Sequence to fold (148 residues):
Amino acid sequence: MSSDERSQERGFKVADRRRFSETGEARDTDENAASESSAAEASIESQPIPGEGPAATTHAQEGAPEAEINFSTFIIGLSAQALAHLGEIPDPMYQSVRVDLEAARQVIDILGLLRDKTKGNLDNAEGPLLESVLYDLRMKYVERARGS
Fold:
């Protein structure tokens, strides 16, 4: 039995719900696709997940909104970590302003590494965002390092 036959037997269906096509054009929203997608999601959600007991909770069960994860939100998340380490914003773990220059430098270096490794592969919004975030964080790091 092939994997396609097994997935059809279990009622599992994969539906592409992205709002944009591979070429960047907006997709049409279709009521039929939405209802098929909802039925497939309900089928998937009703199946137990191996390794999780009934007491396990997920963000969806807690009512937390699902954030869209893409390269830009990843960069913003890393920059928020660096800002917290630089003492620019409160550290979410301790709810206080803490300065850890070594941790800030590591996050800034990771962003620099991402810039180098993704050169030529970023779209018109991602490239400038990464450059801007990296420049701002480096300037804040230098200011904080000189002030300490």
